[in-house]
Amino acid sequence: MFYKELDNGKYRYYEKFYDEREQKWKQVTVTLKSKSRVSQAEAKRRLARKIDKVLTAPTKEELKRQKIEEMSFGQLLTEWETIRGGEIKPSSFKSEMKCLRFFMEVVGDLRLSDYTTQLIQAYLMSLDIQNSTRKNRKIYLNGIFGYAEKVGYISESPVKSVVIPKQKADYEKLKKAKEHFISKEELSSVLSYCETHNKDRRYALAMEFIFLTGLRFAEFIGVRYQDVDFENHLLKIDHTIDYVAHKYDDRVLQTTKTVGSVRTIVLSERCLEIIDYFQQNCLDKDFIFVTGQGNIMRQPLLYKFIKDICDTVLGEGRAYNIHMLRHSHISLLAELGVPIKAIMERVGHRDESITLRIYSHVTENVQDELKEKLNQIRL
């Protein structure tokens, strides 16, 4: 111990010591009024207490480690929201965060170290959802726990070893998959019914347009007159209306689902006739497909229109919906012999496997054509 006299007449006592945990020298001080032996003894006692306090207090690393060990999923989610909010579209962000919050509600807001592979596996398998949806939920969890691993909150993500079992196709599933399409003959019957029974013409034409173009619903409602090249029969698709994070009539535009979804497609004469009808009966100067009240078409209302009409004309029990029209368009192109790459470009698919799953649906017309060709084979 040593001391120095200060300008104010007091004395500052110093003691150096070595901190083994941090492997460096440190120093503590105490100021007293005197340098007497009594004061020096008191200084030694105070300095000793200070040294003991420093040596027993958690280090910065220990405090950081303690904070990490006590970190909950809710705290991680708050951090992850800030990161993901700048990475993905608002609609995708809203869906992902909703799923992650649901996970926290079901499993609990536990410490990160308490989440195990078995716990997450059990959670995912307990959900009464399609296997494809289950895989998406796993992707969300893999993202947030993968981030926690990268920044050092956990040593290894518990999602890495989670296995989503493959579902073997059974007869009912195959039957249901085949019912997720509508042929051009069936659609023709539906449209004829709409005309003879005075059904909403705008919704009927919307059905037909999606069937003829294969647009996603968000792409369809986002089509504007300025996106159409009437002279060359082309439609530019580079945006959608975000109706998930915003209201339909806020008309908030966002980028398409993927980079591969940005495309320009050829429009048939019939597509141009449909657009011409909306233009001749224009209720919005920008967006084409609006209702009789001039509002952007709502997904639930168009879905109900399609389901009710198809149930009446084609019979109940099939999965009639908006996306069915998109799948049917792909199936129709396959029936016409359009190469898969050309189909992918037209409908905005980047992943070939997605198109192939729909492409593999062979219509009765193709089967008949195949039968004729097989009958021509003679050995």
TrEMBL record:
Query: Which Gene3D superfamilies does the entry link to?
Result: 1.10.150.130, Intergrase catalytic core
DNA-binding keyword on record: yes
Q: Which residues form the Tyr recombinase domain?
A: 177-372
Q: Which CDD domains match?
A: INT_ICEBs1_C_like
Q: What is this protein called?
A: Integrase
Signal peptide span: none
Core-binding (CB) domain segment(s): 71-149
Q: Keywords on this record?
A: DNA integration, DNA recombination, DNA-binding
Highest taxon, organism lineage: Bacteria
- Sequence similarity: Belongs to the 'phage' integrase family.
Q: What InterPro entries does the entry give?
A: CB (IPR044068), DNA_brk_join_enz (IPR011010), Integrase-like_cat_sf (IPR013762), Integrase_catalytic (IPR002104), Integrase_recombinase_N (IPR010998), Phage_Integrase (IPR050808)
